[in-house]
Fold each of these.
Amino acid sequence: MVSRQPRKQRKKLYKARLHERHKFLKATLSPSLRKKYGKRAVRVVKGDTVKILRGSHKGTEGKVEKVDMKHLVIHVEGVSVAKADGTEVPRPVHPSNVMITKLNLEDKHRLEIIERK
């Protein structure tokens, strides 16, 4: 049985091995994609188009520029924050706060993974 203690939940998240982290990088699909593929959520990859659902950038739509498996965040094109010296840096977004609106199907294996089951 998995513990319900927040302390142990966080520990499991932070101590997860690299090959286990892909499970934490899933994002919900848009209703049209959900109907087409019969899945509720899939793993976010570079090149997907996503819409941000939470936070100060809510409603922004853009392509995924980078997926950071170490910190479990993604960087979306057009989502940035200004530093004190005026330079713009990409704002990390957690995958649970986005909805995938268009899939990047350039990799043939990804389509097989999505249509599995």
Amino acid sequence: MSLSRRAVLGLSAAALCLPRRLGAETPTSDHKFVFVYCAGGWDPALVFAPNFAGTIAHDPSDVAASAGGIDFTDNATRPSVRSFFESWGGRSLVLNGIEVPSVAHDVCTRWIMTGDGRAATDDWVSVLAGRASGSLLLPNVHVAGPLFPWRYPSASVRVGAHRQLEELLSGEALAASTSPVVGLGAEAAAAQEVLLRRRVARWAARADLPDAAGLGAAELLASDRATALEAHLSALAGDADDLDDALAIVANCLEQGLSRVGFVSSGLGGNGGWDAHANVQLQGMQFEALFASLGGLAARLDAAPGAGGGTMLDQTTIVVFSEMGRSPNTNAQLGKDHWTWTSALLFGGRIVGGRTVGAWTDGLTGTPIDLASGEVDEAGTSLLPGHLGATLLALGDVDPEEFVDAEAGAPIRGVLG
């Protein structure tokens, strides 16, 4: 039984969830975003909290350092951290002391991405993708990681860490999913088609979207949009076996004008996850690999011309975050446990770089800031995930009040470039 491309598209439509027309809201701008999600909870003390007082446990070889206007924790085992801030600190912003009110991974992930750990609401990624100006084939090219779409479910296209989208579009996936049998009768051919449909359905079910069954974009795979995507398969080519591979897919899509947003997870392949409760050195290895990849991405985007002048880095904000932090003290396994305060790193365009917003107490909790200036202010506001989200939406020319309740957070106006 031989399947044509059109037959493949018909079979796999629900699985791919390509974007349909995105609502009636007025689109915003073309400013781009890359989200790098560090799944499992990173340890701010290893990079973002060079605070050696109080109860914060540090490696004896850690030292406080500064480069590009950013204060950070330096260590000879993490040379890529220093290299990154030396090269890109002037274009970077660190937000310290964001409180995520839970220590459960799933709850914290929803909090840090939506500003609300309980309600069904859009994550910042989906909003920015859904409010892109123009008609993009892949508004959010989503390689791997969590997603919480509500109003804009079809703005995100899961390309898969192992070329699933590319292979489904080309027909390779279904062609390789079974061995053709010569001389099939009509009944056997029909049975084999049912088998193929079931296999595609199982592939779709592996997506970790909580509302995957409700994504209504199936008709688009039979439209000209799927045909147009075929011309850009090279942008999606290759397995995302590590963070560099995943970032290359995202950068390709941004540079070719296919996407406004890209989402990757730094826990891909051999890079592992960040939920290390034993041996704090594992976190150090993660940070070294992460910052090496971030430096490569910054250099690539800075060398690529942007639309209308400048570089791609000028027109892109990269957001690096984790759903929680790690405790200030080590445990009996010489690791650190879950902690409700964390940091986020932003670099690229539209931000005031070379600065840190927020500070750490001696117990690794956050300090209040003045939202207008971004300066530490004991009479100011304690940072919550909603402040991060509102700031990102403002960077993307989306009115934060549409998506973030006033009590949940407001933009940090002092960091908007």
Amino acid sequence: MAKAKNARQTIILESSAGTGYRYSTQKNKRNHPNRIEFSKYDPVVRKHVVFKETK
């Protein structure tokens, strides 16, 4: 019996502030096929900024 492929994919979120700070997380590529953006804390600039998915 063959295993089903995993729908979850590990992605990297990079700060839009230009600090180079990154978060790694997972997303379901079936539910969210496009690149995602989150507002998360960047400790380098010490405030919340937009983090965008990189490839």
Amino acid sequence: MSRSLKKGPYIDQRLLEKMKKARPGEVVKTWSRDCAIAPEMIGRTFAVHNGREFIPVKIEESMVGHCLGEFSPTTKFFRHGGRMQRELETKEVQKETEKVKAVKVEKK
């Protein structure tokens, strides 16, 4: 999402006003997915709308310069299918159950 250097990053002014009015620790709801993350936003939590629901996004230092929409996916990834994938998942489940059994034996 590049933007001309002479224009600078797009930061929604209404979102900045909402952020300044909000108390520390309060979640700020926004529909502005194309708004770039500014350094003033670090440590805040925004509820970014993905078209169906609001996804909470806690802003960290490494996110500066990116857009809010990048951290709120609009589609849900189910999984890649196939027999091999199912076999891998069953092996993982078996390993987890073995760990739980081992922990129960240690507690006795």
